[in-house]
């Protein structure tokens, strides 16, 4: 399928470049859509949160008004029956606060016609009730308690109180209805965001797959070219130089593509991570709201609401964060390969035996942990090449050998070397797990690993080593069998030759 797509774009490097640009544009649009959806979801979530909070404030105000009416009636009856001034004081407080609380409810529900009608009826009933209460209180204050009790007994107070309770219950039910509608709208908005995010993630996955496939295709092409170059190495020095130059140019092209892909993908990835953090913050707000709802009105929030706020949303955000972190590590790996390819080569005379002993000292603690040993078999030929690149090649291969030693026998790693013509051959041999023949080429591909995946890593180490070896004018391959160990063979020129000028670098050091 990938080759078919490339053929539709023309199959040339420029066409593939256009294809990668199209992929990046699609990826950017997908991330932009996800970002817009995230912003809209956050805004809508905040608005719904405010509306839900408002609904709870109204419900609490209604409950307080109901409590004040009941407290006033209880205090009045206590005063009529006992004449205790404490009851009268409680009644006065309730009678004074009740109209203010009704006014507050009126202000909070002014935009709801149903509640406005209920408030009008409630205000009239409460006013009549307070007027009747005042007459009985006044009779009691004047010492006419019998008359006050007779008035209280004769009035249709029970019917009035029933109507007041009925109105307050209707008002509370109206707010519960609004709360259900608003919660449904909020869930619908979040579901729409998840759909948008899923589509964007799918598009990003497709873009990343095709982009990485392009890089891997170029890497495989380079590997095939290098294999052909090695066939002619012994007899055709001029052809070797020509093929090396071609590989260098192609490698630079791959590095350029890798930089474009990784650099342009990083910016939208940062946006996704940022919006994920915002969504996580919004989720915390929703979770706090559910906690407050459970504390204030345990029956309002359903179990589905609690699961969505406390488990489903955090779990989904965790999956998004894990995926973006993995993608960030992969992009960093591509950037590392790209930057290494652009670094200036600084040739120097290198004592490979001394370098091997230095590496051994740096990993001695790992060798001790695994009960293994590393041997540098002298003599090892010296070369003129880039110190940092050669150290990275040897360190990576040696560390891999330590990592994949077999637990069934004492580990042993040997570094040896010899000269063949104008090239130095370095073998790093171990008695570890070994590599299946079908994976001998695969392990040098980017993000590809072989065998049991019980060791940390992203599958870039040997791809990086191969890229470095190619850049230094060399090669790397492996001979291995499962269960017996592996031998990585690194071939480098005795003296580094600049592929642009075709001249050996550092004339004074070219003979090691």
TrEMBL record:
<dbReference type="InterPro" id="IPR003594">
    <property type="entry name" value="HATPase_dom"/>
</dbReference>
<protein>
    <recommendedName>
        <fullName>histidine kinase</fullName>
        <ecNumber>2.7.13.3</ecNumber>
    </recommendedName>
</protein>
<dbReference type="InterPro" id="IPR050351">
    <property type="entry name" value="BphY/WalK/GraS-like"/>
</dbReference>
<feature type="transmembrane region" description="Helical">
    <location>
        <begin position="15"/>
        <end position="43"/>
    </location>
</feature>
<dbReference type="InterPro" id="IPR003661">
    <property type="entry name" value="HisK_dim/P_dom"/>
</dbReference>
<keyword id="KW-0472">Membrane</keyword>
<feature type="domain" description="Histidine kinase">
    <location>
        <begin position="260"/>
        <end position="496"/>
    </location>
</feature>
<keyword id="KW-0597">Phosphoprotein</keyword>
<dbReference type="Pfam" id="PF05227">
    <property type="entry name" value="CHASE3"/>
</dbReference>
<dbReference type="Pfam" id="PF02518">
    <property type="entry name" value="HATPase_c"/>
</dbReference>
<feature type="transmembrane region" description="Helical">
    <location>
        <begin position="192"/>
        <end position="216"/>
    </location>
</feature>
<keyword id="KW-1133">Transmembrane helix</keyword>
<dbReference type="InterPro" id="IPR005467">
    <property type="entry name" value="His_kinase_dom"/>
</dbReference>
<keyword id="KW-0418">Kinase</keyword>
<dbReference type="InterPro" id="IPR007891">
    <property type="entry name" value="CHASE3"/>
</dbReference>
<dbReference type="InterPro" id="IPR004358">
    <property type="entry name" value="Sig_transdc_His_kin-like_C"/>
</dbReference>
<dbReference type="InterPro" id="IPR036890">
    <property type="entry name" value="HATPase_C_sf"/>
</dbReference>
<keyword id="KW-0808">Transferase</keyword>
<dbReference type="InterPro" id="IPR036097">
    <property type="entry name" value="HisK_dim/P_sf"/>
</dbReference>
<keyword id="KW-0812">Transmembrane</keyword>
């Amino acid at each position: 399928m990938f080759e078919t797509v490339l053929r539709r774009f023309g199959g040339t490097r420029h066409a593939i470049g256009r294809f990668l640009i199209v992929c990046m544009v699609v990826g950017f649009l997908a991330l932009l859509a996800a970002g817009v959806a995230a912003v809209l979801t956050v805004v809508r979530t905040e608005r719904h949160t405010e509306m839900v909070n408002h609904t709870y404030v109204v419900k609490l105000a209604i409950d307080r008004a109901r409590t004040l009416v009941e407290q006033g009636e209880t205090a009045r009856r206590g005063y009529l029956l006992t004449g205790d001034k404490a009851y009268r004081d409680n009644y006065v407080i309730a009678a004074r606060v009740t109209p203010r609380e009704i006014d507050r409810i009126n202000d909070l529900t002014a935009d709801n016609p149903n509640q406005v009608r209920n408030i009008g009826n409630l205000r009239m009933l409460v006013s009549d009730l307070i007027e009747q209460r005042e007459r009985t209180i006044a009779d009691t204050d004047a010492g006419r308690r019998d008359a006050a009790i007779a008035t209280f007994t004769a009035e249709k107070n029970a019917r009035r109180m029933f109507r007041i309770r009925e109105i307050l219950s209707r008002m509370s039910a109206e707010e519960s209805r609004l709360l259900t509608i608003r919660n449904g709208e909020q869930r619908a908005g979040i579901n729409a965001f998840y759909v948008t995010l899923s589509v964007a993630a799918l598009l990003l996955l497709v873009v990343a797959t095709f982009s990485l496939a392009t890089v891997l295709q170029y890497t495989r092409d380079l590997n095939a070219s290098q294999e052909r170059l090695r066939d002619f190495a012994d007899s055709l020095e001029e052809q070797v130089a020509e093929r090396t130059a071609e590989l260098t140019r192609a490698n630079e092209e791959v590095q350029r593509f890798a930089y474009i892909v990784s650099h342009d993908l990083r910016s939208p990835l940062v946006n996704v991570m940022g919006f994920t953090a915002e969504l996580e913050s919004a989720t915390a707000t929703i979770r706090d709201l559910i906690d407050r709802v459970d504390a204030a009105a345990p029956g309002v929030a359903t179990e589905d609401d609690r699961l969505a706020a406390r488990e489903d949303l955090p779990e989904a955000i965790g999956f998004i964060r894990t995926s973006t972190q993995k993608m960030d590590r992969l992009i960093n790996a591509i950037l590392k390969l790209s930057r290494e390819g652009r670094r200036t080569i600084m040739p120097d005379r290198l004592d490979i035996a001394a370098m091997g002993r230095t590496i051994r000292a740096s990993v001695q603690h790992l060798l001790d942990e695994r009960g293994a040993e590393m041997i540098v078999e002298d003599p090892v030929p010296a070369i003129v090449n880039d110190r940092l690149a050669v150290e990275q090649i040897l360190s990576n291969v040696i560390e891999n050998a330590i990592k994949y030693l077999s637990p069934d026998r004492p580990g042993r790693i040997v570094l040896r070397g010899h000269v063949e013509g104008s090239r130095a051959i370095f073998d790093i041999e171990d008695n570890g797990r070994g590599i299946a023949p079908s994976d001998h080429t695969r392990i040098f591909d980017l993000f590809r690993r072989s065998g049991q995946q019980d060791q940390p890593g992203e599958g870039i180490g040997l791809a990086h080593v191969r890229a470095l070896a190619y850049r230094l004018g060399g090669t790397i391959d492996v001979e291995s069998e499962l269960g017996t160990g592996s031998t990585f063979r690194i071939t480098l020129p005795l003296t580094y030759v600049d592929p642009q000028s075709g001249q050996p670098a550092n004339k004074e050091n070219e003979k090691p």
